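User: I'm curious whether this sequence folds into something compact or stays loose and floppy. Could you predict its structure so I can see for myself?
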Amino acid sequence: MRALTRRSLLRGGAVALPFGGLAACSSDEERPARSFVESDSDRVAAAEADRSPGPVREFNLNAVESEVDFGGPTVTTWSYGGKVPGDPIRLSKGEQVKATIVNDLPDPTTIHWHGVQLRCDADGVPDVTQAAIAPGETFTYKFTAPDPGTYWFHPHVGVQLDRGLYAPLIVEDPDEPADWDLEWTVVLDDWMDGVTGTPEDVLAQLREGMGGMDHGGHGDMDMETAVDGHTLMGASSDILGPDAGDVHYPHHLVNGRVAADPEVFEADPGARVRIRLINAGGDTAYRVALAGHRLTVTHTDGFPCAPVETDSILVGMGERYDAITTLEDGVFALVAEAEGKRARGRALVRTGSGEAPPADFAPEELTGHVLAYDELEPAEGAALEAREPDRTIDLELVGGMMDYDWSINGRPHDLDNPYAIEEGERVRLRFANGHDMWHPMHLHGHTFALADSGLRKDTAIVLPGQTLEVDFDAVNPGRWMVHCHNVYHGEAGMMAVIGYRV
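Assistant: Here's the prediction. I'll summarize afterward.
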């Protein structure tokens, strides 16, 4: 087994952070008041027309508060239709989603269609693309799904994501050669709502700050974690650094089931299975492995990559990976290890007779080869055309656990002062992280390419002390959020907006 280091595992697109950090376009002089394309603009409608919208597929969603059974624990939470995860939405590329949501929650909500390059007025961000949907109200989202792949949807109001409001969105490609027999969508989640409190309780404790707490293990994987209310100290990772996460979750779910009573995926020996992995967690990255099998990764965040074989995959919050494997004969655990938190979720794959392994079983693949960004490159046809960026936007990821004061360029919740771009530009985002905490950064309305490899993604991990450069083409006018997909970092302030000039 090769040694695991942060640089060797996730250095894709990363360079050492210069002394003193990066010059950030953050002053009022550098960002004068400008007019930006609004979500109801004719340019948004024109961009949608250019997608050649296909047939309309209608879906109904009901955001409700109800009891949900996780295979033993039963909790009262918020979900779509009383299920966690919610029922998946499936359609073909080019078709239109027409999704009507009834909000039967006590609070306003929205839906964000994560990873889809959709029209701006359907993006589901309050105060940026729409007003939040009030309790008792109904709202209809309509947009074209132009790109095949594995996506998902969730709210974009407060910390609602850390309840049960999420579901897969699968966009199929009828022209894709199918070299698999079966498909299995696997949604990972860290769970505390209705067990130890609510996400709002967690955020309130985090905002009190952790200055007096030793929350970093500083690379010592033998150090024990410690729980203080909703917070977790000592969650260190050889991949993610000294602070892999700060929220204590009593359960880690795979497709809405706890490890003691897991979902069972049944198949025949020799079947080739396409596994679609989605991390819907709030504060946890998962290292995923299937006991007795290697996984061939074929897609990242919906877009195809050159196939690469690995023992396990690290999936940050908001990220998705597709992988194919040929199933052996027996009973096998698919294990999602909460990176640095010394806890696991699991499902089972059964192709024959045999006893299931115990709930705490850890397959040797978890300590084998973990896939790195720099091993991946876009498949033919998935890469952006080679081109130098017309504009570079420096985004310094600022804050710390002392005061829980996360922001971008020192501007928390910077939604009213967009970073300006022009339609048609190649734009480079330079995420600079000079702190001990890692951040999964997500751009709405676009996919980007890691600058050094061209790998297509929309959510990417920025490691402590590293800078990640990503490029995208400005072909989708509107205002678009860029934020950390740790739901507590984002809600504390690590969010900004990219805006197309009028």
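Summary: Helices lie at 6-9, 42-49, 199-207, 487-492. The longest strand covers residues 56-69.
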